[in-house]
Amino acid sequence: MKAALFDAKPYDIPGFDKYGALRGIEFKYYETKLNEDTVSLAQGADAVCVFVNDTVNAAVIDKLTEYGVKAVALRCAGYNNVDVEHAFGKIHVMRVPAYSPYAVAEHAMALLLTSVRRIHKAYIRTKDFNFSLNGLTGFNLHGKTVGVVGTGRIGRVFIDICRGFGMRVIAYDKFPGEGIDYVTLDELFAESDIISLHCPLTEETRHLVNRDSVAKMKKGVVIINTSRGALIDSEALLDGIKERKIGAACLDVYEEESDVFFRDFSGHIVEDDTLARLMTMPNVLVTSHQAFLTEEALDNIAAATVDNLTAFFGEGVCPNELCYRCGRIEECRRGRKEKCF
Ligand code: NAI
Q: What is the domain range of residue 259?
């Protein structure tokens, strides 16, 4: 079985080589992202393996189908970059639903601590033998209210971490679970000192943080986004920061990240004015979609992707297929006992 792996990075290759060799899958690595211009590289492959910023739109799906590619194996949980509806009946799509919720939740807390204790400032200062503390005053997390949007795998781990810090946790989820103090979104915006986003990007959640919601938030609120960039309207975020309404933003994801993230732009001019302006703010912390990047998560991603492909091509059914038959992607009425189509 041959798989074309797009947007390949040096840290991806060892895991895919290891698990691929064990299961007889030959991975061919392409540094370029999958899109309409690069899709021809998939010719001859049985499957393509893609990540968060590859484009699997209708045009790409049609080309893959024409080339006889049978499966799109996402090596991530989110699938907002795949036109799953268009794929139905043409090409099977599978994902890695969970590889390490701890990696992402811990990164969210790392960003929060870095931001509120000014570690990023202190690090640069002490490297320059400047041991002054002026301007580094932070605030305690203990006793603060954190509002968590999305209480799935990652959101729940983040909640546990916050509880360990003695924070009051409130949450909003479209499908509430047990053991968490759920409130409405408006209540969450109004009461939270810190807001952390852990829901998927859908038409419903796009620009969940916008001018209206920022207006409802507490002055000085810290916003953390380790989920998907377009959950936040970046212009509204920038204005909220300029107006001193938003106290800090911790961003592992950015709306237009696919043009910038995972690449080295040092020595180049970044065209994205909003990102460039955000980066000039002392209270904005950006990491480039790094939250998943732990040794444990990379190993789990490679193992699970190879398992998905092995199950699909071997047993004919993959439990992690994104089924669109019922029109409700994650709630397959067929119980994953057979292929989606
Ligand atoms: P999950 O599927 O376990 O949980 C998502 C939660 O969001 C569920 O409880 C669901 O009910 C809730 N939800 C769905 N629609 C909602 C809505 N309209 N409003 C509020 N809540 C809603 O997903 P998991 O594993 O916790 O991942 C969360 C997100 O984290 C993913 O969608 C992905 O975008 C992002 N992610 C980011 C990574 C990074 O490296 N920065 C790595 C992995 C995931």
A: 101-286
